[in-house]
Amino acid sequence: MLSLPMAGVPQDFGALFDADTRAAISSGLCIQCRGAKLLCGKSRCPILVRWGSMMKTAPMIDRFELDGASPPGVFVGRFGYPKVFVGPLVPPIHGDTQILDSPESWVGHPMEDIVRFRSTLVRGMHRVHVQDVDRGGRIVDQTRELALGTLPADVEVGFTRKPHGRVVLDDNVQPFGPSAPLERLDIGNLRVDPNLDR
Predict the structure, then answer these.
(1) Of 135, 154, 158, which Cα lies nearest the Cα of 146?
(2) DSSP of 136-185, one letter per residue?
(3) Which residue, of 59, 64, 92, 96, has the greatest Cβ tally within 10 A?
């Protein structure tokens, strides 16, 4: 089980939530509920679950550089198509991190664990044109290599700004962690399926 330290509350609380969530909060339902009455019909307050997870991760990612063991996992966005964001998923922890990006292993885990698994992964983002991936440079090449990995790999990333995230409550969208534009990406020893090396 992963254990992450707690942090203080960020100054701009509203920046953590998307516009729809801020509207739902301002409608008054959350004020009446206060995370205790569960007026939204859920078994646990999703805002409190997501908030708690973000606060545990925040002190470990409050910097321009990050290193950790990628599950291995990569992010390929869809917004801005045909120019989309791609990059590694990197937690600020080392060790066996495979469960963080393995939904098939989440069966039987409570909602808090699943939100924590997803919220711990920091998304490095590098914009690339889908029809011209070969011009994406070293970051895209290393992201591609990471996608072929079979076991967690040590990864170091440099960002152009500190990672940040927000709480999005949507039954159709899985929780996701903070993100930041990539400046550099370095991968340690990577184990790849031998059949792919042929």
Answers:
(1) 154
(2) G-HHHHHHHHHHTBSS-EEEEEEESS--B--B---TTS-----EEEEEEE
(3) 92
What digits encode the pLDDT tens for the residues 139-153?
A: 999 999 999 999 999
| CA nearest neighbour of 120 among 54, 183, 181 | 54
Does the pLDDT of residue 2 top 90, yes or no?
Answer: no
| Alpha helices (H) along the chain | 19-26, 29-33, 46-61, 111-120, 138-147, 194-197
Both tokens assigned to 19: 């516009």
Contact, 19 vs 26, CB < 8 A?
no
What global pTM score does this model have?
A: 0.73
Task: Give the residue extent of every domain in the chain.
Answer: 13-197
Measured distance CA(177)–CA(165) in Å, rounded: 6
Query: Cα angle at 163 between 160 and 164, to 5 degrees?
Result: 135
Q: Which residues of 42-56 are buried (b: 16+ CB within 10 A; e: fewer)?
A: eeebbbebbbebbbb
* Chain centre distance of CA 84: 17
Structure tokens that stand for 122 in this block: 């920091």
Rounded to a whole number of angstroms, the distance between the first and last alpha carbons of the chain is 36
